[in-house]
Amino acid sequence: MAGRDLFVFVALTVISSLIVPKARGNSEGDALYALRRSLSDPDNVLQSWDPNLVNPCTWFHITCNQDNHVTRVDLGNSNLFGHLVPELGKLEHLQYLELYKNNIQGSIPVELGNLKSLISLDLYNNNISGTIPPALGKLKSLVFLRLNDNQLMGPIPSALASISSLKVVDVSNNNLCGTIPTTGPFEHIPLNNFENNPRLEGPELQGLASYDTNCS
Questions:
Q1: How far is CA 68 from CA 35, 55, 106, in A?
Q2: Which residues, 6 or more positions from 154, have their beta carbon under 8 angstroms from its beta carbon?
Q3: CA atoms of 148 and 86, how far apart (whole Å)
Q4: 177-196: average pLDDT
Q5: Backbone torsion region of residue 204, taken as left when φ is above 0, otherwise alpha when ψ lies between -120 and 50, otherwise beta
């Protein structure tokens, strides 16, 4: 009897590990909790972010789909200080990353290029520095890319011109350099969305201007 009971116990344990969504939920929760740990939150906006819950779908400012996958992070204008974390790249179902109007510093993690479902990346009005990662060119569902009013440097990655879904790009009020792309979605982006970048030159002339002009 003891042997059979042990077999039943092991079998039930294996089955429960397969049907309970805790590991998947916790992987997304772990990624978001890594973000929380990297941020100072004087207004306790993130107080509900409890890593001990099965998944983060009950946390304030988080939206999930019917399968309990995180699809939105809405933390705009929340008086948050700190930096972004590479773990955000694990939120593979994320569609909206809204972190505008905070006091976020540091660079944009290259791992955000893994967010294949992302529609909107709103990081404007922060203190983000470094370059715009060319990996963002992998975001083939992206429609809104608003990085204005930061301290970004370097060129506008040419890879962004391959995102056919892109409708809004705003990188004004940074310290970008080089030339403004004109192909793909950039054909329809107004020039004032690039203004106040002292080292950024006008639209690139096909075959006449080097892409990285004034960007050394």
A1: 19, 7, 30
A2: 130, 131, 132, 176, 177, 178, 215
A3: 21
A4: 94
A5: beta
How far is it, in rounded angstroms, from Cα 199 to Cα 179?
9
Query: For residues 119 and 143, what is the distance between their CA atoms, to the nearest angstrom?
Result: 5
The DSSP annotation for the chain comes to -HHHHHHHHHHHHHHHHHH-THHHHHHHHHHHHHHHHTEE-TT-TTTT--TTSSSGGGSTTEEE-TTS-EEEEE-TTS--EEE--GGGGG-TT--EEE--SSEEESPPPGGGGG-TT--EEE--SS---SB--GGGGG-TT--EEE--SS--EEPPPGGGGG-TT--EEE--SSEEEEEE--SGGGGGS-GGGG-S-TEEEEEPPTTTS-TTTT--
What is the phi/psi pair of residue 81, to 5°?
-120, 145
The one-letter code for the residue type at 42 is P
- The pLDDT tens digits for 80-105 are 999 999 999 999 999 999 999 999 99
Beta bridge mates, 200? 178
CA 133 to CA 159: how far, in whole Å? Answer: 9
Q: What is the dihedral of CA 123, 129, 130, 133, to 10 degrees?
A: 0
Q: Which residues contact 138 (CB under 8 A, 6 or more apart)?
A: 113, 114, 116, 159
User: How high is the mean pLDDT of the chain?
Assistant: 88
CB 70 within 8 A of CB 91: yes
